[in-house]
Design a protein that fits this description.
With 418 residues, the protein is of the alpha/beta class. Helices cover 39% and strands 16% of the residues. It is built from 15 helices and 12 strands. The chain is globular and about 60 Å long.
């Protein structure tokens, strides 16, 4: 005779908990890879994993849910360009997503980037406010707390603390060429986002945590969980020799820059200025450029288009003597972590959370726009050699930014919320 208590225990073991994540992309770029890795970690712990995404249909070990189609994204873009309604289009696509979520019945819903021309926040949050489901929201930038922009430090704007209006970055991503709805958007975001009761905010840097505490999210519980990287792939044993041979960099000092999109706030102009002052035996390699940007580079900068291959990136980090991140606005860039894991020291501007990964024995922090400061750091590396930093860089990455350790923090958070 089977005791009923045993049957109940076995039944509870058989029923897997379900995690559903929402992000603009899947297994592409930093946020897409983060969501993918969290999904894998959840599955390792016995969960079912679903990832709903807007574009960049990459491979995934999780169950994929495509939100909308190309036409939805284009129409959302038109709504944004003309009427500054980013996050308020894609109605049919979001209604369909809500029906899929209801069918799945997730135990946890984990939000990432909700901007990106693919989602209607009013429809989504009206559902989330009524659903009895714990929400985790990882903030990768400041868009959830502003009426328009993902970052505001470059233009030194603090209107988000009280109420956004007359946005000084209206024509920047997500660009509006006509109307400025930053005031209305800010009111609506606060109304919809703060309608959810059971929500935990996860800023990925201490810098962003401070901003959260000054925003309309201040009453929500929040905890910092830093980003992590694959320290097995980004490691010291990846040989950069082939990269040096391919780009004719033998016997040269290599300064590396990597970005998903190179724009003014990422420091492309600073690299061009730096290229005019570096010694003849120093080369700059920039990864993530468009073909047009590559054509316009000065001759002593080697431009490489964006790569989704983390193995190729690991070789590039290993080939470099110094990773340079002259970012003017940033949260907690994973590129810094990838460089450290490959034993490459990091130089960053004193920007946002970018400085949090760097210590005195793993790299340098210089003031924004400090080209002369960068040159002094270059001379320091030339004198002491990269090898004198590599062990400390690798140790810091393994001890603090191993993705398995960091994303286990999310699994513990899920369990706490349940």
């Amino acid at each position: 005779m089977i005791h009923p208590g045993i049957f109940q225990v076995n039944l509870s073991i058989m029923i897997k908990k379900k995690l559903l994540q929402i992000n603009s992309v899947i297994n592409s770029g930093s946020t897409g890879r983060i969501a993918e890795d969290i999904g894998v970690k959840a599955m390792d712990n016995g969960w079912e994993s679903y990832i709903a995404y807007g574009r960049n249909d990459g491979q995934s070990l999780s169950n994929k849910i495509k939100i909308g189609n190309k036409w939805d994204i284009r129409w959302h873009g038109i709504q944004t360009r003309l009427f500054d309604r980013h996050g308020f289009a894609s109605k049919k696509a979001t209604v369909k997503l809500v029906k899929q979520i209801q069918k799945i019945g997730p135990d946890i819903i984990h939000l990432h980037n909700l901007h990106g021309y693919y989602l209607n926040i009013e429809i989504l949050f009206n559902y989330l406010a009524d659903a009895d489901i714990p929400i985790v929201w990882t903030l990768h930038d400041c868009w959830p707390m502003t009426g328009h922009c993902p970052y505001f430090s470059y233009v030194k704007c603090d209107r988000w603390k009280t109420h956004c209006h007359n946005c000084p970055q209206k024509t920047n991503y997500p660009s509006s060429l006509c109307l400025d709805r930053s005031s209305q958007n800010h009111k609506l975001k606060q109304r919809f986002f703060c309608s959810v009761k059971n929500m935990t905010i996860v800023p990925v840097s201490n810098w962003l945590s401070d901003i959260v505490s000054k925003s309309y999210f201040r009453s929500y519980p929040h905890r910092v969980i830093h980003n992590g990287v694959n320290t097995n792939i980004f490691s010291l044993d990846k040989d950069g020799t082939n990269v040096r041979v391919k780009y004719h960099l033998q016997n040269r000092m290599v300064l590396l820059g990597v970005a998903g999109v190179w724009e003014e706030r990422k420091g492309l102009r600073d690299f061009i200025e730096l290229s005019r002052k570096i010694p003849e035996d120093v080369s700059i390699v920039l990864v993530g450029l468009t073909e047009k940007q590559i054509r316009e580079l000065p001759p002593n900068i080697i431009g490489i288009k964006r790569t989704e291959s983390i193995y190729e990136l690991a070789e590039l980090y290993n080939a470099a003597d110094l990773f340079v991140n002259p970012t003017w606005e940033d949260n907690f860039p994973t590129t810094n972590l990838e460089a450290l894991a490959c034993g490459t020291p990091v130089l960053t501007y004193a920007t946002g959370g970018s400085v949090e990964a760097v210590t005195h024995d793993t790299g340098f922090v210089v003031e924004q726009g400090g080209i002369d400061g960068i040159l002094r750091c270059v001379e320091t590396i030339k004198g002491s050699k990269k090898a004198s930093y590599s062990v400390a860089c690798r140790k810091r990455a393994v001890e603090n930014y191993n993705k398995d350790d960091r994303y286990n923090e999310y699994i513990r958070l899920y369990e706490e919320l349940l």
